[in-house]
Amino acid sequence: MKRVDLIKEIAAEFELIANRLSETEVATVASVVELEPQHLAEIAKLAQKLTGPKNVKLKTVIDKSLLAGIIIRIIEEFGALFIKARICPSKGGDRFQL
User: Fold this and answer.
1) Positive or negative CA dihedral for 88, 54, 51, 31?
2) What is the reported pTM?
3) Exposure class string for 57-90: b at 16+ Cβ within 10 A, else e
4) Backbone phi and psi for residue 10, each to the nearest 5 degrees, phi listed first
5) Residue 44's closest CA among 65, 60, 31, 64?
6) Does 87 or 3 have the greater pLDDT score?
């Protein structure tokens, strides 16, 4: 069992190094339900705009403790950025409102 835990730690460290080398920022998106691909694409664009010219990789988490909306967590080298948003219907489709 200890070997399995060690492999998980090695994989996590490898992912951190690979992301750093490829200038990829990982953003965690928490929501009550699974988000549609178009919503994830819009979130990725927003995260990329906030982090600069870096690539963005999204990890999604279902969080049943949320009542509505989403929480986006972006960790950069010198701090963290938390964004709370909600999905609002509009003429051109659903949009996020921060």
Assistant:
1) positive
2) 0.66
3) eeeeeeeeeeeeebebbbeeeeeeeebebebeee
4) -65, -45
5) 60
6) 3
